[in-house]
TrEMBL record:
GO CC term, one of those recorded: plasma membrane
Taxonomy, superkingdom: Bacteria
Classification of source organism: Bacteria, Pseudomonadati, Pseudomonadota, Betaproteobacteria, Burkholderiales
Compartments, record wording: Cell membrane
UniProt keyword Chaperone, yes or no: yes
Name of the protein described by the UniProt record: Ancillary SecYEG translocon subunit
Pfam families assigned: TPR_21
Length: 214
């Protein structure tokens, strides 16, 4: 009886050896890939969380510098944020904040630089579009009309269609092209949903140009 069991156990061991000789390398490789991928994913998640945390800290430093009005600190904090965490949402939001602060103080070159950076580097298309629309307004204020139209001609998400058309109207009007301005304002009005307050702003501009919308 004992001999029978020994032979049966030996047969099972031989079958296991045969199985492992045939499939062992593949199984080991798969396990290494799976476990390695799991470790890499955890590492990536840790890296992302760390990036976000450090970017948030620098973004807070930018906001504090803006609130204090210290241009040197603004440039330093925003520069560090761009250099080290330029692909984060925090960097893009900080850029918009820096641009607004500069524009409020009449520092149009600084506002243009910050908005251009966001428009070129933000990871979110909505933030890119926001930067471009604001950049066009800065260029309009600087009488760089053709440059402003070029920025507004860049492809943006469809939800920006109305505001882009409205800004184009402002640029054309500043250039003295009344017919093109009216066409742009009408396009903006058409792309704005009924009941939205923004329609009133566009309507006022058209009325001022002699267009009766009734």
């Amino acid at each position: 009886m004992a001999t029978h069991l020994d032979l049966e156990e030996q047969e099972q061991i031989d079958q296991l050896k045969h199985f492992w000789n045939k499939w062992g390398t593949l199984i080991t490789t798969v396990l290494v890939i799976v476990l390695g991928g799991f470790a890499a994913w955890n590492g990536y998640q840790y890296w992302q969380n760390r990036q976000a945390s450090q970017a948030s800290a620098l973004s807070s430093a930018v906001e504090a510098a803006v609130n204090s009005g210290d241009k040197t600190r603004i440039d330093q904090a925003f520069g560090d944020l761009r250099s080290n965490y330029g692909s984060t949402m925090q960097a893009a939001h900080a850029g918009l904040l820096v641009a607004k602060a500069a524009g409020d103080k009449g520092q149009m070159d600084d506002a243009k630089a910050a908005l251009t950076w966001v428009a070129d580097n933000a990871s979110d298309e909505g933030l890119k579009a926001t930067a471009r629309v604001r950049l066009a307004a800065v260029l309009l204020n600087s009488q760089a009309y053709d440059e402003a139209l070029k920025v507004l001609g860049t492809k943006m998400p469809t939800e920006f269609d109305a505001v882009v058309a409205d800004h184009k109207g402002d640029v054309y009007l500043a250039k003295g092209d009344k017919a093109q301005a009216i066409e742009s304002y009408k396009a903006a009005l058409q792309k704005t949903e009924p009941g939205v307050e923004y329609r009133n702003v566009i309507s006022v501009k058209l009325n001022a140009l002699g267009e009766d919308l009734k």
